[in-house]
Write a structure and sequence with these properties.
Blueprint lengths: L1 E7 L9 E9 L5 E9 L3 H18 L13 H5 L3 H19 L2 H13 L5 E7 L3 H5 L6 H5 L3 E6 L16 E7 L8 H8 L4 E7 L3 H8 L7 E5 L2 E4 L2 E5 L5 E2 L5 H9 L4 E5 L4 H8 L5 E5 L5 H16 L4 H11 L14 E5 L16 H17 L2 H10 L2 E5 L3 E6 L3 E4 L4 E7 L11 E8 L7 H15 L7 E7 L2 E9 L6 E10 L2 E10 L3 H14 L1 E2 L1
Length: 543
Amino acid sequence: MSKLVVISLGQRDIKTGFPYVTAQVWSNSGLPSVKFTGKLPIDQEIFHLYRRWQGLYTAAYQRLGLRRAAIRIEENDLTNFSEVEFNQICQELQQRINVWLNSENFRSIERHLRSQLNVADEVQVVIEVDDDLGQRIPWQLWDFFRDYRNAEIALSPSDYQYVESSKPRRKKIRILAILGDAAGIDIQTDREILEALPKAETVFLVKPQRRELDRWLWDERGWDILFFAGHSQTEAETGRMYINSTESLTIPQLSYALTKAIERGLQLAIFNSCDGLGLARQLAHLHIPQMIVMREPVPDRIAQEFLKNFLTIFSRGKSLYASVREAREQLQGLESEYPCASWLPIIFQNPATEPMTWIKKKSTNRRIGVLAAAVMTIAALLATPAIINKVREFNTFSLYKDAEIAMKYPKEWQLSRGGMGRERARFISPEEYESDFLEQVSLTIELLELPNMSLQAYTDQTVAQISKGLADSNGVSIYKTTLANHEASRIVYTRRGQPDIEVSQIWTLKDNQAYIITYTAKKEKLAELEQVIQEMIRSFRIE
């Protein structure tokens, strides 16, 4: 089960401290289930340790073919470089980061997170921070990630918003790959990795002129992934990429074309180049869903190994966050030659959007697909009560039950069990077609914010939150109904930015808890599955 944790540090910095830190855990219904507050103190030592580490890191990597146009290092760092000292600085920085995060006023946030999350959960941890140092420190060294092996870190600016975009159904992922200035480095390997991808259509722009790059970004078919390999760097707060041997560009110089590409479905930008934080900050202003960049200058081999491992894992169906963590941790095996390689890759996430997923493979369950097609054909031709009853025989049900709730679900649907609190279970329909949207039903239990909260008050609050952030301009339809023999509310809305997806939720309240059933489906499938869903809802019981 996937969870989203957003930790907002505000618009301060490490040298002056973060006096108001908030952490929210987002439930699978799309609503924040809990919120905590805390503080992070001033820590000048992290600032000095990081700057010393950065100088020694750059000196150590100067000889390894970095993907950066120019490297400026202090002469003392180069002449006085010591591997022993560098390793010691690495250890001290890791220890100091954990001392800082274990401070009394932040430790309460971590305790709350641990109480809300199961160690088996896949957790997206997004740190909202605008401070340069706050974005550069290796947050993945936090002891929390040692215990939560399915969690991965991402960064976000404090300001972000959801952008309406089209998401055309494709048989292949569309990738626009920019192979820029490669003086002194090898980016041919990057091309070979992209060419080997399954279910991908890649357009390569080799050392393009600005006009050519701009024209391809405006392509009416849209792109799923934007990729750049070559030299890049961050100058002050500005990221710059070198698209050929004579031209370099910043994100603002491509802002109109990039904005249109995002509106046409661009979901992920990968900058497999040096020091990509400046590029990520600028592109974040355009509200792209996700980016993957390198925090610091990166040698060829590390850039290529990460790209190969990430795309291999991601294209096989793992989530973006799980793929980045696994590919990043695989770099540790090279750290005897390339110190701190696993510290470099980082996700930039727009928290208002969901992470990208790769196109799924065609279902291999041919027997179910053929049987379902045959039954639907007969039903369509004859449509008699006897035939309808025969169809229902194939919809045999299993029983989900835990200490508090029980509900029937179709045997052929996949059951995904949750942890204690919030989402308890998710039932996912079998895949029928390549790139098919999987209809699903989830069961969630949420504690009420106020004791003895009325059904009307809970409904008003929930509808207001959904209308603000999740529903499209048509709003939310509300109905009165019953659930498990209790008075209940039912709402229906279309997802913002996904006009073909309808969400229906029904909830009732008991003992200061909300019991919620959420059904998500493509509109074209609603009539087909209506009887199955109604049978599931009728079977729901509160123990």
